[in-house]
Each structure stands twice: as C-alpha cells, then as structure tokens.
Amino acid sequence: MESIWTKTVQIPARKKAEGRLEREIAVIGAGMTGILTAYRLQQMGKQVVVLEAGRIAGGQTKNTTAKITSQHGCFYQKLISDIGIKNARLYARANQEAIDAFEKMAEELGAACDFVRLPSFLYSADDEENLKKEAAAAVSVGIDASFVTETELPFPVAGAVRFSKQAQFHPLKFISAAARGLEIYENTPVKKIRKNVIYFDGGTVTAQKIIVATHYPIINFPGMYFMRQHQERSYVLALSRCPRLQGMYYSADLDGLSFRSAENILLIGGNAHRTGKNVQGGAYADLREKAKIYFPDSREVCCWSAQDCMTHDGVPFVGKYFYGQQNRFVATGYKKWGMTSSMAASLLLSDLACGRQSIYEKVFTPQRHRVKAAGNLMQDMAESISGLARGWMFPYSKREEDEQKHWTRCSHMGCRLKWNPDEKTWDCPCHGSRYTVDGELLDEPAKCSLKKKTNR
Ligand SMILES: Cc1cc2nc3c(=O)[nH]c(=O)nc-3n(C[C@H](O)[C@H](O)[C@H](O)COP(=O)(O)OP(=O)(O)OC[C@H]3O[C@@H](n4cnc5c(N)ncnc54)[C@H](O)[C@@H]3O)c2cc1C
After folding, report:
1. Ligand 1 cavity residues, CB under 6 Å
2. What residue numbers bound the domain in which 387 lies?
3. Which of 40, 61, 280, 430 is the most exposed place for a label (fewest CB within 10 A)?
4. 427 and 328, same structural domain?
5. Cα(451)–Cα(367) distance, rounded to whole angstroms?
6. Residue 33, domain member (yes or no)
7. Can you tell me the distance from the alpha carbon of 87 to that of 180, in angstroms, rounded to the nearest whole number?
C-alpha cells in the first residue's frame, strides 16, 4: 500500500551512522516532529544530529492526510471543561501559531510544497446543536470559527463548524526541503539510551540533550508512556475524477469520513479502530462502497492506512521525558493531528532544550495528572494487562485457540498479536507495534522484529 505522497516524491537517501559521534543535541526519529525540531534547533545555532531507524518521513508522516489545522475534531467544549478556558486558549494558540509557522518555514525554504490556505469544516449528519456549541467554544478560545449550513459535501449535513485560514500541503515535498541542510542518518535504529549516550548497531552518539521523536516513545522506563496512551489506525482512499474541494472536512459523527483534495485527487479517510482490533477486516471495502455512492465516476488511485497515538486526555505529551529530567525530551500523542501538533512540539521542545521557558509547557507537559481523564487511563491499563496475560492468567476464547498455530507475541512487552486482514499484518492491541507476515517490524514502540517467523 503506497500513499499519494510517496508515489509523487522520492526523498534522497542518507547513509547509516557509524562509530562514535558527539553532538550538542541528538534527535531520534526523522518524521515530521524530528525534522521540524532539528531544523529549529539548527536555526538556533545548535549542532544537531538526527538518527532514523528507516527512511526520512518513512513512519506515519508518509501516510498522513496533511491537513494543517487547529480543528482537532469536536474537541474545544471538552478541552475547556477538562483544562479550563485559560489553558484551552493556550492549546488553540499553539496550534494556530503552528499553521503560520508552516507557512513561514515553507517560504524560508523556498519549498514548492503545495501549501495553500483554506477553511476547515467539522460537519455532522444530525447534531446541529452540538456543532453550534462547538463553534461557540472555538470562538471563546480565540479561533475565527462560525457555524454554517452550506458545504460542498455530496450528502446532506445538519451543519458544520468552519475554521477560517487553515491550510494543507504535500508533506513529503515540505519535509524533503526541510531536511536538506540537516545531518541525518538513515537505517540507524536506536537500541537503547543510557544517560547521555545513544546506542545503535555499530556505534554511539553522545549528546548533551536527547529528543525522542519516535512517534511512540521507545524507552519504557522511566516515563511509562505505554500505560498512558494507545494507538488508533485509520484508512485512506485516493480517488481521481472527483470534484476539487475548496475546504477540508472532518466528521463529528462516530462513523463519519474525512475529505481533502490534493490537486486533482480526492482523499477520503475513515474507519478508525484501536490498532490490533480489526480482526474482521473490511475497512477498505467499506470506504470503496462509500466512494461508489458519493462519487460514482471516481477511480481509485491508491489506498493506505496509518496510525497515531491517543493520550488519555486528548492533549499531546510534549516536554521533559520524565520528572526532573533536564536533558531528555519527548513529543507524542497527537491524536491524528500531528501536523500542527508536531510544529507546536518543535517550538516548545527547542525552547526547553535551549534552557528557555515556554508558556505552552504546562498545557503539554507529559507529567500532568488530569482527574477527568482517569477513566481512559484505566481502560488503557486494562487493555495492556489483558493483552499481556492472555493465555497465561486469562483463558483463550475458542477463536483464539483456533488461531494458536499462527499467532505470536510482540517483541515490545510480550502482548498477544492480532491479525489485521486489511493490511495483512500482525498488530499489537496493547501498544500498537506492527509486523509483516514474516515478522519484520513495521511500527514502534517495539525496537526489533519477531524472532519466530509467523505463519499466515
Ligand atoms: C490516517 C491518518 C491521517 C492523518 N491525517 C492527518 C492530518 O490530516 N493532519 C494532521 O495534523 N495529522 C494527521 N495525522 C497524524 C499525523 O500524520 C501524525 O501525527 C504525524 O505524522 C506523526 O509524526 P511523527 O514525526 O511524530 O511520527 P513519525 O512520522 O512516525 O516519525 C517517527 C520516526 O521515528 C522513527 N523511529 C521509530 N523508532 C525508532 C528507533 N528505535 N530509532 C530511530 N528511529 C526510530 C520511525 O522510523 C519514524 O520515521 C493522520 C494520522 C492518520 C493515522
């Protein structure tokens, strides 16, 4: 499965790291977060190296839909209730500033990355009241938002919340330009970090500051991010012969779809599920059905899927890796809004890594405790425990017994893997690591492939 972005842009390869390196700052992971953070730190005069397990942007970033917006689903009413109006304003401001920062950086780089300003719409088939409340909540945190009843969508809606001056781009054209002047090593998976030394096969990097930008944090202790977030996967179809949309669309309804145009191609996204919980399959088939209904003349160009980390309170974890750590930082938990979130993270982390204070630190700090999110936290912990204990403490179901000859356990923490028939992969329902049918690692937090070859 290949995204429309990888079909249209090839980022030049970099060599593997070797030997002993010493730099002021090391960034682990060359996705949108790692590249933006390294770029900003280099602009601030720091000597930075980036270590990437695979290829630049080869993680989730190559499979995003790249809507650059502070409209993060139906979120602001909940956010205000959870963290108060003052902090919710800071969240909105960080994300609005991120949109401007992308525009400025694209100009600075002279990047022909199809960056374009356009409005973003949150629509619902039937819940007009909720949308009106969401529009009011967005206005109250400083966003230029309004409730509208007209959209370009090919089906009736009860209305939509319109955010003006949002943006979209081609993420790989942008990242290719941003990576140009950076010291990046590819095919260099980091195995461990001890104090200020990073270990990879064939060498080490010693750095005063280390930024873990691996999408899902790869260091389990301290931090215990594996207890505090899970991954959710969703699916995308790229279609030709469709109308070109003048806005980006996201649904407030549970089974809704997202839409954006990319030149003359239309992207439709949806069918989200917790990673490891798609045992029935049918995610692409369902999108194809809907495409046939709404855009009967369309032709499929390609399809793909991706996943993102969902924190218990819906706010990313960006800041110090663990209490009191002044030299190690992290950014994760973007809830499928990793374009503005990664830019906001890069601004915050570059300040912290340079010893500066930031007004945004208290909103995004990974060391926060939000009582209202305790239910989600308990649910994530329960999933982890059940995945680990399946077959040992908890008996298998009949179906699981039938699967015994196929399945295997994750190399991250030993959870039982589940087959995803849409992707033909083995996925971990606890923390979201994924493997090919041959047991090769596709997605972190696991750091290595499966020892035992799978059998499917
Ligand atoms: C279907 C879908 C659609 C989306 N659409 C949007 C959208 O429209 N707008 C939006 O804002 N967000 C969107 N997102 C979210 C967004 O794509 C992600 O949040 C973002 O790309 C994450 O970037 P990242 O740099 O944190 O992670 P990644 O891009 O995954 O980068 C992490 C990098 O770390 C590397 N790595 C991992 N382990 C190691 C290791 N041990 N050593 C060295 N390197 C390592 C990986 O190889 C990878 O390259 C979407 C998400 C999904 C699932």
Report:
1. 28-34, 51-54, 58-61, 64-67, 189-190, 213-215, 218, 234, 236, 269, 306-308, 334, 336-340, 342, 444, 447
2. 373-443
3. 280
4. no
5. 35
6. yes
7. 36
What separation in Å is there between the alpha carbon of 342 and the centre of ligand 1?
A: 9
Determine how many CB atoms are found less than 10 A away from the CB of residue 16: 16
Atom of ligand 1 nearest to the CA of 58: 49
Going from the Cα of 60 to the center of ligand 1, the distance in angstroms, rounded, reads: 3
Over its C-alpha atoms, the chain yields an Rg (Å, rounded) of 21
User: Rounded to the nearest 5°, which phi and psi values hold at 162?
Assistant: -100, 125
Q: How many CB atoms lie within 10 A of CB 396?
A: 14
pTM: 0.96
In 321-386, DSSP assigns E strands to: 328-332
How far is it, in rounded angstroms, from Cα 338 to Cα 345?
9
Residues 154, 294 contacting (CB under 8 angstroms): yes
* Same domain (yes/no): 335, 220: yes
Say how many domains are in the chain. 2
Most informative mutation of 60, 75, 99, 249 for ligand 1 (most atoms within 8 A of CB): 60
Q: Are residues 330 and 432 in the same domain?
A: no
d(CA 318, CA 324): 14
- How far apart are the C-alpha atoms of 456 and 453, rounded to whole Å? 10
Atom of ligand 1 nearest to the CA of 339: 11
Summarised one tens digit per residue, pLDDT across range 231-242 is 999 999 999 999
DSSP conformation letters of 252-268: SSTT--EEEEETTEEEE
Q: Token pair of 404, please?
A: 């015994």
